[in-house]
Amino acid sequence: MSDKNALIQPDRGQQAVSIHLVDKDGLEKFTKGLTVPQRAVLEAARFDASAGEYVILPEGDGWSVAAGVADAGTLGGWCMAKLAEKLPAGTYRRAGGEPGAAIFGWILGQYSFDRYKADAEDHGPRLLLTGEPAQIAALTAEAEAVMLVRDLVNTPAEDMGPAQLEAEAEALHKAFRAEIRVTRGEVLERDFPMVHAVGRAAGRSHAPRMIELEWGDPKNPRIAVVGKGVCFDSGGLDVKPSAGMLLMKKDMGGAAHALALARLIMSANLPVRLHVLVPAVENAISGNSFRPGDVLRSRAGITVEIGNTDAEGRLILGDALTRAGEAGPEFIIDFATLTGAARVAVGPDLPALFTREDATADALLAAGKTVDDPCWRLPLHEGYREYLKSDVADINNAGSSGFAGASTAALFLDRFVPKGVEWAHFDTFAWRPTAKAGRPKGGEALGLRAAWHMLKARYA
Hints:
By secondary structure, the chain is of the alpha/beta class. It has two domains: 4-110, Leucine Aminopeptidase, subunit E, domain 1; 142-459, Aminopeptidase (3-Layer(aba) Sandwich), CATH 3.40.630. It has 15 helices and 20 strands. The protein has helices at residues 27-32, 36-44, 81-86, 102-108, 134-154, 162-176, 185-191, 193-199, 242-245, 253-267, 313-326, 340-346, 358-370, 405-414, 448-459, and strands at 8-10, 17-22, 54-59, 62-68, 90-94, 126-130, 179-183, 209-215, 222-227, 229-233, 273-283, 295-297, 303-305, 331-336, 352-355, 376-377, 395-396, 422-427, 431-432, 442-443. The strands form four sheets. Strands 7, 8, 9, 10, 11, 14, 15, 16 and 18 form a nine-stranded mixed β-sheet that branches. A six-stranded mixed β-sheet has the order 1-6-5-2-4-3. Strands 12-13-17 form a three-stranded mixed β-sheet. A hairpin with a 5-residue loop joins strand 12 and strand 13 (303-305). The chain starts with 7 loop residues before the first strand and ends with a helix. This is Aminopeptidase.
């Protein structure tokens, strides 16, 4: 696609096609203001101002667009996304008002992942004008963060392994002068033993590593953002069926969210001391794979019996959360494509949210609702801790019951977050199985904007 920054431009009176956004309550008034030929086109198209519907109207020597929206007075972020997908290349403005938050969906409506297509279609950019240029930078930054998640998740594992995640972190390090630290090899085995154990079977070409970034004034409040970076998940020796592996390139979706959120925080110069942690591995199968029944030592000193090698994400996050807690943050957020149970519970559109404190959940849920990035809270129920009991170690990585899989996984992570530290865990799908306007099938950011707007409200 074209330069994302060029898709939204300040309105300086340029020639542009008018877009009339009409809701059902305003349709009659809008129709009365049309010419006879325009009303005939509207009637022939059976336009009733349903959200997502649009029709091309003749206007002088040119044309304009009538588009249905749910509420013309309060525009949602996605209300113009379909127009951005479908309209011809050119320059547009909203007639009689500003696009507002619809700028976000306008940009994402022109997203495509065509890295591997030799004959990728290029319909040219659809530019949108706004008389409120102050909105351009913030909404463009959010759209670019979402596109970063999509690009990383959509990229196949051969081209998006631990080394490529490190390269993405390196790019942030250079762009924002952040400090970077990458731990590999024998030091990884010593300092992050569960990360090493999960990733060692992938060999040298996809060797495991812990990636850390630190940025911001050390005097500012310290926060940590952690992302699960399993670049491909075979299931290990508890191997997945072939159908279960088809989407496992997306198992680093948590890392993609963490890097995108870090980019938003740093580009906005949010007054925090940011610590980003991405344990990057491939859960492969070889002669040195970790096994069911093994007992792993963790960075925290907690011993973990392996009940299932396909429950590997929580292992690498355990070491990462321990490291995050050692630096004394006041708040930790982690993102992970952690459990199928969360998808059964809330489906693909809603990231399951777990927090220790009601106020944390309330703030994240409210932020997500405001920006149309909804989340759903699930319980950290103390009674389910017994499902993680082990006969030979401090804890088992797989629940002994078939119940509450998302909650037991979150409770496993809770063991590695220091007591008294505010913590939020997003069990996100990072994938959209069916397309919607501005949201094609494929990698998706779910929970990212909720977290970002919550942090902005708290620290800006």
